[in-house]
Automatic annotation (TrEMBL):
Domain of life of the native organism: Archaea
Name by which UniProt lists this protein: Phosphate uptake regulator PhoU
Domain SpoVT-AbrB: 8-54
InterPro entries documented for this protein: PhoU, PhoU-like_sf, PhoU_dom, SpoVT-AbrB_dom
Organism: Methanoculleus nereidis
Amino acid sequence: MEFRKVQRTGGSSYVISLPKEWVQSMNIKKNEPLPIKIQADGSLLILPRPSEEKEPRTKEFNADTIENPTFLFRCLVGSYIAGYTAVRVSSSAKLSPATRKAVRDFSSMTIGQQIVEETDSSILIKDILNPSEMPFANSVKRMFVIIGTMFTDVMTALETKDRALAEDVINRDVEVDKLQWLVSRQYHLMFWDATLREKLHVSVEEASNYYVVSRTLERIGDHGVRIASHIPVLLDHGADPEIVADIKVATKNAMDILHSSMRALFSSNIVDANRTIDMVAGLAGMTDGISALAHREEGELAQSIGYIAESIRRAGEYSSDIAEAIINQLIRENDG
């Protein structure tokens, strides 16, 4: 850390010089106005220029060296989460159909990513979303609503023997992934754009907590998909009505835990968060009972019932993880 002396000029102004290396690297000119903001912790934030004037962050991928379209898709998602505002995929020859499909899939499965230029050998994707238009809380609430309907509908599919509805639940998980990637992107953008936290009206600690919650919600959604994927097996083998009834009760209990944790999140209620954690013990007893009943079945049916019981339990446990994160955040805030 470098220390610089504060000087007084004109009897009322205090002056401190800026590091020459920083001024040159930021291309700051004489008499150029710089944004200055006093932070909540008392530190002083000096920005090189308003964030709207920053040069776009561009990432380039060479399709000649990334031939696997799945690998390319993962790289594109990684660049999105890292906060790049422009991504170019190019090749020394003509882009393959598989490569183009990977790029189109990425554009359709992310929020704000638009293909703006396309030639035989190159595709340019640009971010058209203003990050401040999608607050963390809105994205997390939307994830919660989608996941809640996924678990409700998967139980309806089991009760009404609706295979199409179970398949629809699986397909809905894409929307959960979209929102989680967006939360991850905006969280990482905060470390590149220091003004974003002000635009989103959140502290770094709050953003970190929303990021953790979004990751947990994504995992809960994955278990909803896992349950839906085993519904056809229960329907094919005619699962015992007693087991079906117990699965429905346990799923409702898991969703009650999720609803309780989310209420605690948005009300900042540490008592409710603690009460939510205590609810998990009851769910564990329910899922253990379902697993015991599964042993009365055979083969594929027994296995699927066991997987469903495990996913219900995990959904409840992940929900309690959200409550634990809330307690940790509130304790930190009270210390501040």
